[in-house]
Amino acid sequence: MVEKVQPSLGRMPAVNFLRPQIQTLKAYESKAIPGCVRLDANENPLTWPKGMREELFASSFALNRYPDGEAQGLRLALSQYTGVPVEGILAGNGSDELIQLVMTTFGGEKGAVIYHPPTFSMYGAAAQVTGTDTIEVPLLLAEDGRDFCLDVDGILEAAGQPRVHMIILCNPNNPTGTLFPREDILRIVKESQKIVIVDEAYGEFAGESVVDQIPNHPNLLVMKTYSKLFAMAALRLGYLLGQGSTIQLLNRARQPFNVNSFTQKAGVVALNYVEDYRAQGRLLIDELDKIVEALKLLPQVTVFATRANFVLFRPENPEQVYEQLIERGFLIRNMGNLPVVGKALRLSTGLPEENTRLISALEEILG
Length: 367
Ligand SMILES: Cc1ncc(COP(=O)(O)O)c(C=O)c1O
Fold this sequence. Notes:
- Keywords: Amino-acid biosynthesis, Aminotransferase, Histidine biosynthesis, Pyridoxal phosphate, Transferase.
- Belongs to the class-II pyridoxal-phosphate-dependent aminotransferase family. Histidinol-phosphate aminotransferase subfamily.
- Its EC number is 2.6.1.9.
- Its cofactor is pyridoxal 5'-phosphate.
- The strands form 4 sheets. A 7-stranded mixed sheet has the order 2-10-9-8-7-3-4, sandwiched between helices.
- The protein is an alpha/beta fold.
- It has 2 domains: about 15-45 and about 275-365, Aspartate Aminotransferase, domain 1 (Alpha-Beta Complex), CATH 3.90.1150; about 60-275, Aspartate Aminotransferase, domain 2 (3-Layer(aba) Sandwich), CATH 3.40.640.
- It has 14 helices and 15 strands.
- It binds pyridoxal-5'-phosphate (PLP).
- Pyridoxal-5'-phosphate binds next to α5.
């Protein structure tokens, strides 16, 4: 029997049917200002290593077919690159998808997640979308006021609650740039007995990783992305590394064809250029150092210690500085009022010539 649609329902606004978790959620905003140099998304501004584009475009793609749902070629190449067996690798449509997948798989009504504000905003957003409870254990401000520490004891105490299933640690941390000590991270992995996801989106810039610890800890997942050092933010590619038994669980909830064929191939090709990327990484860090040193010389500016390709800083009047930089052609990130830090701004490094102009603009505005 065909059900009749009630005429009154047709006039009912869709907002009436929202899940309660979505009611207070705001759509993610990413601002694009034409003509502005983009220093707001922590990307790699350099062009791809020489020959890479040509190699990728010379590949053939069966675009009428679904992609390989298991991303076998990509996972094989990643296995050689990371040393993690193929069955311990899961590719995603950017780390953003993987953050949500982890929560869909292990969170929901019965599985809370711990994270450490101020940190990457998508952890909170993904928790809300998936109906996962959150427990926030804020970072501690170091004595010098320019660095942060993980509250390891606080995290372990919170993790003692049975409802906690996951802990997310961001290392180096976005937006503070902090690199947390390896022993702090491993203590949380060992003592919490919960699933610990270490987001190493900026790990290549800091030259540190806990990937080597995966064989020792079935509860450890390491998350990586091609969006930062590998300069592929547009193609959306991230991956999770862990023990095969844990990765298999995530596959149950993954969309079957989550990474498209072109992106899978780009991920393979990029790994033929790792040395070039490393050289790019060194250049970007040298460039960032120049900006950091210039910021430190400016009056009334707190500059936070960073090991990533961006820096967080707190001038006296952040909103004004943000607007004045836009007027001079630079889009940076206004972080608003961050927990622990207060109102602050974040910028990532641009091309050398852009950075020179940026430093002049900062000196003009803040000097
Ligand atoms: C810490 C962190 N994790 C994950 C992501 C998302 O990366 P992707 O582009 O792979 O979704 C970002 C992007 O800014 C990030 O800062």
